[in-house]
Design goal:
heteropentamer, A alpha/beta, B alpha/beta, C alpha/beta, D alpha/beta, E mainly alpha, A: alpha/beta, 5-stranded parallel sheet, two-stranded antiparallel sheet, 9 strands, about 30% helix, about 15% strand, D: alpha/beta, 4 strands, globular
Chain lengths: ~325, ~325, ~675, ~160, ~210
Amino acid sequence: MSENGKPKFAMYWAAGCGGCEIAVLNIHEKILDVDANFEVVFWPVAMDAKYQDVEALPDGAITLCLFNGAIRNSENEEMAHLLRRKSQILVAFGSCASEGCIPALANLTTPYAIFEAAYAGPSTDNPQGFRPQPSWPAPEGELHIPEFYPVVKTLDQVVPVDYTIPGCPPEARQIAAVLDVVIAALRGQATLPPPGAVLGAGGSTVCDECLRLRQEKKINGFARLQHVRPDTARCLLEQGVLCSGPATRSGCGALCPLAGAPCVGCYGPAEGTLDYGARLLSAVASVIDSNDPAEIERILDGIPDPAGVFYRFNLAGSLLHGGR
Amino acid sequence: MKYLLYPGCSMERTSRPYLDSMWAIAAPLGLELEEVNDWNCCGATEYVAISLVPAYALIARNLALAAGQANGTHTLVAPCSACYVNLSKADHYMRESDTLNQKVNSALAAGGLKYKPGTLQIRHLLDVIIHDLDMETIQSKVVRPLKGLRVAPYYGCMLPRPDYEKRWSNPEYPNELDRLLKLLGAEVIDFPLKTHCCGGHMTQIGPDVAYELIRRLLHAAADYQADLLATLCPMCQLNLDAYQGETNRYFGTHYHLPVLFFTQLIGLAFGLEPEVLGLGKELVDARPALARIGVELPETEAPAPAARKARRPKEALPMPRMSDE
Amino acid sequence: MTKQTNSSPKHEERIGVYVCHCGSNIAGVVNVEEVAQWAAGRLKHRGVIIARDYKFMCSSLGQEMIEKDIRDLGLTRVVVAACSPHLHEQTFRTACQRAGLNPYLCELVSIREQVSWVHTDKIVATEKAKAVLSGGVERVRLHEPLEPLRVPVHPATLVVGGGIAGIQAALEIADSGFPVYLVEREPSLGGHMAQFDKTFPTLDCAACILTPRMVSAGNHPHITLLTWSEVTQVEGYVGNFTVTIRKKARYVNTDLCTGCGICQEKCPARVIDEEFEAGLGYRKAIYSPFAQAVPKYPVLDRDNCTYFKKGTCRACEKFCPTGAIDFQQQDEIITLKVGNIILATGFDLFDARRVPQYGYGRLANVFTNLEFERLSNAAGPTNGRIVLRDGVTEPRTVGIVHCVGSRDRNYNNYCSVICCMQSLKFAHLVKERTGATVYNFYIDMRTAAKAYDEFYQRVLEEGTLFIRGRVAEVTDAARLAGEEGKIIIQVEDTLAGRQRRIPVDMVILAAGLEPRRDSKELARLFGVSCSADGWLIERHPKLDPVATMTEGIFIAGCVQGPKDIPNSVSQGAAASARVLGRIQQKEIALEPVRASINADRCSGCRICNNLCPFNAILFHEDQMVSEVNPALCQGCGTCVAACPAGAITGTVFSNEQVMAQIEGLLLLNLSRNGHRLAQTSVPVAA
Amino acid sequence: MEGTFEPVIIGFTCNWCSYRAADLAGTARVKYAPNVRLIRLMCSGRLDPTFVLKALASGADGVLITGCHPGECHYIEQNYKALRRYLLLRRMLEQMGIEPERVKLVWASAAEGAKLAQEITAMVEEIRALGPLNWPAGVRRCDFSRPLAAEAAPTNLEVAR
Amino acid sequence: MTSPTLETERAALPPLPAAPIADLHFLEEVSAATAGVSRLEMCIQCGTCGGSCPSAADMDHTPRQLFAMIRAGMRDEALRSNTPWICVSCYHCVVRCPQNVHITDVMYTLKSMAIEAKQYQDSTAPDFARTFVGFVENYGRSFELGLATRHYLRHYPLRLPGLAPLGLGMLGRGRMDLTPRKIEGVKQLKAILARARELEEEAGGK
């Protein structure tokens, strides 16, 4: 407990877009409850803080730490270890921390290729062909920048994680609900869920919350949303638009399909799923309406980037982590 | 339609009429034929009897040249059955055997060439005419139906066999030439030896064997009261036409059966002049037979469709129906 | 996080491992003692508390050893490393059950068929045996106690096909007092046998031995005859099939018809009879295919009926003494409940036109074997006179060509079994009735059954000429003197080593047997498997030839493959014995391999709905969830693998069990350095 | 690395055809490479692509999927579902840099013991030529199976167990 | 273990005559030298090939017999047989063979093996093939007149006058050239063929 008696709260942004930070602000007046119940000790986006300040805290001093972003470099990993040591409840907050999310799609390629894309190419003005170096002798002394890892990892691949809140970003109402439970638990009015649990999400998949009409599925061809004008009331997948809803954990309220866009899978795998991409791939392939290999191949040509589609949010968390 | 053309050695000389008539009907049929530059002999059946890899390398040079020349088409047309079989066989075996493919390509490399088996579709002239063209269009161009002409459709061996790509209706009894000739108005007989051998190169290396084979064909055609034989292969035409006299002499027979190329008959039906079709260059004079075209014979004198078809008594049992009729 | 590779057992299992020597079958290659010792040590932390090896684990002493351990050591799981589970799974399950352990907590892993019999390097084989065993141990940890599914058996049986095999099967069951529905697509029972004249090798008249059977089947109080009918739908499962049958309109009221035949006499439309007379004779538009037809009622062939074609005629109606003709009749749809099904749909004849060099269809005097059966049949179109196609002339020389469309990669690769004997029979009949010279052209003479070779000897004695050589071509193109006007058979006489041309008057082609043209649809309709050829596949080619892989569906006769009459009859009887066994048991036990859906997890996405060929998955619109009907589920697991939400689980082969087995199998890596083995991943309790 | 590389292949078999083919190979004493370890499923339709990924992730160098020939599935047509999944999975694995030779689909009827043996041996040879399924250094270095529990900070909150 | 007594008894017997030489690798050799797969081992001796052959009457052995001889390792007899030389490449046997044996291709193989081993009885056909190939290798095209005259002069000199009308008829109708035609890429072709011959020899056996 801190000097003012309030439990300490931390939030950290590793490899990610920052949307999770905004999502926390999106809980509107609920943010006041956070302030009322916690003392924010570390939240680089919201307040000035130094890593040393965290290091100075006794182990386990932070009650709740929301960690968003994936582990892309050595700094991310160091902070993960540090915050783990200092926190009683470490939450993998959002898709990046829990599954790798979009940053992890980089696992399909190599650091070399990534640097080539970033530091060379037509849109980059880099006549000397500089590339980031881990250390550099500056007049002030040797300077270091964090080491870029060959693969993106999820938070729970580097430190034990207590809970996961999925979503890209997590839905505001779900964040609010989780905060309510933690606050109630702090007051002794509730019990925390068992460790390892996924919070702020449902137990089924997106289809459970989707109101589109469904029939038996038979797919004769896949099309991208921009190329077709799907029936507004019918299941998108049945119309050949690759919707990840059937395999994606519920909790978002089926926002995308109800707005006319296919689910992209940001809430991650359903309960008990070992590999999200394989599950979705299996389901989608099973309902292809052909037994002829040539015809099946033709239909599959409608999915030009299977790894990107089936593992859009999940590559780092998958069995193969993206291959090689 | 556009095709690459591999004429083959015979077309330029012994089967000049075939070449001429092919070019003559190409325009009315809408066939655009582009000759493969600097093609060489296919090796006939001789080269492979001496050594395997050179024989296939010889053929493959043509395939490589044709593939390199592929200009909006990958179909290579050969009007000669022997060339057709050699070209398609090389492509087939190169696909089937990796070892052969590697050897042949390594030989081609010595001449700066390469060929990926399967690149070309190798087809016979009759195949593209009957399968690629619209039958109604062909029929509409017929101005002089070959009415009254009894034609024995003669396919020979190497067109329908071994038929790696299954391009023909049957390896024993194909019907493509029959259908085409009927379209031209000819009376087509059910020639039982339509795919039997003309003797091939045996006229050179074992004339006794060859003359017997020629005799069988002539006898069967005469037995079925054919006016002439229609053929689609230079070797078949050469053996049946040029060696008909020899055969008659050898056996003391007197068959007189003109042998024309199917392209000549198409040209005739299209109303083209006999000269441009190379007519008159055959050794067995076709004029008497061709004079029958259009001659209306009195009903009673018309020969029965098959010479030996017996009158059906009322006790007769039904005949099985052919499925394709 | 919820990612777990193993869902760990709730309490620590006590596993017994038993490694069989199988005499020297396993022990000759695999060091079984080493495998057992390794399991006891290395797999101890996985719950293995005892590991033993024994000479013959399946012997009573071996089984008793396991039972004793279960009782004395309180084993909760048993893994036996021995032969294939298809051989002895049941044996060891029963042993466990005797000792009070649920039989489904036993796992049999194959180290004989998959290790000792297929590998030679003893060290590598021993290591592989350890890996296979380790996979079994990981798997058995997640086994659940199960009960076999018990389903009642409906006492009625459906027999499809009214040929001799189907008739035999129907009579056997009906004679035992149980109801049978006998469905036949043609107007009459009888099948191919009814078309034959004599039957080899005894030369009994086919009609004389078949007709009484047909009549018994037609009159039997327990047999419901459904001729001119076809099965259109099959639902359900063993013991409880629901079958839909379309009874085609006969346009004859069978309650009124007496079978007098006047309608046939008066009908003006003459049609070539392609079915019963094999195209060699004629029938009317209203007809009964043959005199002894069962049932006796004729059928009206709508496509050839003058009234249906032109709107006038009605001759049959005018002359019918009982007013039985009914032009208004419609197809009738019948639904039946049956417990078991016997398929006896027979064969089709190979179409000899497909071998154009044999001249059938072009040369008038080339006949097929079925045509010749009709030709030589006293009730056939020529009253049994063997004549040429002109209907008058007797042949003086006849050539019989074996293996037409059989034993030929261009057509059918298999031997049609009956043609050699049939051809010998033809040779005898031709000789006997016409005195003609007869040639038989054969590749190999196959007369392998009781009294068959004796018949061959008899035909040899009668002076039939045998030429060993497959006929190359049959032609009318004469080449040599004496060939004019004849059909010439060109062949290599392989015994003489030269090509021969034999002019004959008549050629009989021994066309082979083929699966029914719609056999693939038949297989799909009944949910049984058929080979690439189209023959239905038996459960075991030797030990279970009349059962199929689908419980409750049996096969008899040529639907399973070419066979002669004695074998078809035997199979009909055998299939009925299997069915009667089921009926007597009143209920049957099924493997409890089934899928089930967790309704809380199911989002109603309907991915699985269309994946089940047995229609076992229902969708509840009101609750928006799918459900598996365990009675219809066959346990294939396709829906389990397809469920995107992971809401479907399957017993015996759950995701967790398969994953655990993968980890177990990969416990040991193969040698990367000579024969020394390196350890890779070690499965740890999650 | 000393000695030769011996690949390990996990083979999925169908209870009705390919598992029986393996049995038949045994009874016929057909010899094949010992590098394969078979798992029996009821049908190739049971094959969850997760199994393939799991095998590769757990150290297998290749995965062989077997089932009844098209049109011969014991469950009518479930092998086609395996085919559909396989064709899609193959595309995805290729994106991940896994050579297509490592995951194969082979149809083998119960009668094709010799064919199955031949396919297995051929696949072992192909994978032997490819070498071990090498993950980039980075992936190997990051040890995903390392126990993490010791690192967690203790909590004094009440947590459901 | 054999008993020493028996050994002694055996030693006392006169030596047995030598077994006829059977070259059991001959089948493999023929198969290996054939384009594609020969399937010779699949032959069931049904005689479809011999029955179908238009020139079987003139053959020493029917194709079927020849295949049996190959399998029996009768190398010399098989290579000396005139059968492959009488084959007219009509492919009737190939499409009819119930075992899909590649008969025509095997005939080509036997011809080239016979030439290699100089084991043919009659040099007519091998000579013709060589003359034909000679023209093709030097000009890139075949040359009927040269081929026919050279060939007939050597093998059927007495028949040549009889064929004069035929030759003159062909010449008169413009169906025969007096001089061979030559392709432009003769050099290239020769390089290809030279490399091909090297490859053929490298393969050994042939």
